[in-house]
Amino acid sequence: MGQPRRIQQPGPALPERIVAVEGRGRAITLTLEAGRLLVETLAEGFLAQGFAGGTVDMAGVVLSPFAYVMPALSKTGDNAAFYSDIFRPAHTVTIDQGQMSLGRRDGKPFFHCHALWREEDDLTHGGHLMPDETRVAHSITVQAYGVDGAVFEANPDPETNFKLFGPVSEPDHGSGASQRCFALRLRPNEDFHAALEDFCRHHGITEAKVYGGVGSTIEARFADGRATRNFATEVFINHGEIVPDATGNLVAHLDVGLVDYQGETASGVLLRGDNPVLMTFELVLAQTA
Fold it and tell me: How far apart are alpha carbons 146 and 46 in whole angstroms?
C-alpha cells in the first residue's frame, strides 16, 4: 500500500476526528414534485414524516434546470482544494447514481449532494449539485432515511477553511423512529474504513448499515486494483456496511461513485485501509446488530 496519503489543511487539526450525534432513524420514501426546487420539496417531505433531515438516494431523479460544480485546485491557497466554475447543462439530466445529505445552512433547508449522470455527449459526468439552481423535472418517489434527534448543519470549519456539514443535536420532531443511528462527520486525513470500524467497536455496534455518505477522499484506491491519481475527488457511497468477518473482526465495505478534478469518473468497492478523507465525509450509520 505504501505510505498513507495526507494533505496539509490550512488550519489546525482539531483533536476530535469523528464528530457524532446519536439519534433515532428509519427508512422512508419521499415524493419529489415536478417543477419544485429540489431542496424545498425534499425538506417538506422530511418534515411531513417528522424529520428535520436525513439522507436521500438520488438514483433516477430527473432534473432541469440543473447546476453543479466539480472539484478543482485552489487558486488562492486558502484551501487545500476548491470548486470549479458552475456548469449549467441546457438539457434535462437523469441521475444514474448519487447520494444526498439534507440538513440546513443559515437557518434554511440545504443539501450536500454528489452524483453521476450522462449528458447529451453520451459521457458520464459528475459533481456537486447546487441547491439554489436545481429543480425536479418529473415527479418521482425516492428512497431516504430520516434522522430524529440529530441534523446536519453547515458551520465554519477552521481546519479546512470551508463551511461544512456536520451533525448537531436537534429536538425530536415526533417521527416515531426507533432504530439507533448516528449522524457522523469524518475529518481530513482519517482512514475511511478504520474510522468507521473503530467507531462501531467503541459504541458497542456489531453490525451497521451506511445511509447516504457524501464527501471526498485523497485520490481513491479500489479493491480490484484500479486507482484515481488526481487527489481532489467528490465521492458518494452507493452501499456501505460494517459487518464481522470470519474471525469476528469488524470490516467496513464501501461501494462508491466519484468524480475527480479533471472530470474522470469511477465506481466500485474501495480498498480497505487505503482511502483517507480529503476535506470531510458525512453519513448516517444505522445499527443493525
Answer: 7
Q: How far apart are the C-alpha atoms of 51 and 194, rounded to whole Å? A: 30
Partner residues linked to 112 by β-bridges: 101
pTM for this predicted structure: 0.96
- State mean pLDDT over 160-175: 95
Closest CA to 237 of 216, 223, 251: 216
Per-residue pLDDT band for 3 (boundaries 50, 70, 90) equals low
Beta strands in the chain (DSSP E): 18-32, 53-57, 62-63, 68-69, 71-72, 82-83, 93-105, 108-118, 124-129, 140-148, 150-157, 162-169, 179-186, 208-221, 227-244, 250-260, 265-269, 277-287
Contact 276, 190 (CB under 8 A): yes
Distances (CA, A) of 116 to 31, 56, 122, 202: 21, 14, 12, 34
Res. 1 pLDDT band, cuts 50 70 90: very low
Tell me the fold of 23-287: 60s Ribosomal Protein L30; Chain: A; (3.30.1330)
Q: How far apart are CA 146 and CA 183, in angstroms?
A: 11
* 22-26, 118-122, 130-134: least confidently modelled range: 118-122
User: Quick check: 2 pLDDT over 60?
Assistant: no
Q: Would you list the domain boundaries of the chain?
A: 23-287
Name the residue with cell 485501509. Answer: 273
CA distances from 176 to 170, 211, 283 (A): 15, 19, 21
For the stretch 41-48, contacts whose Cβ atoms lie closer than 8 Å and that sit 24 or more positions apart, written own/partner, are: 41/136, 42/100, 42/102, 42/109, 42/111, 43/102, 43/109, 45/144, 46/102, 46/144, 46/146, 47/173
On average, the pLDDT of the chain sits at 96
For residue 182, pLDDT beyond 80: yes
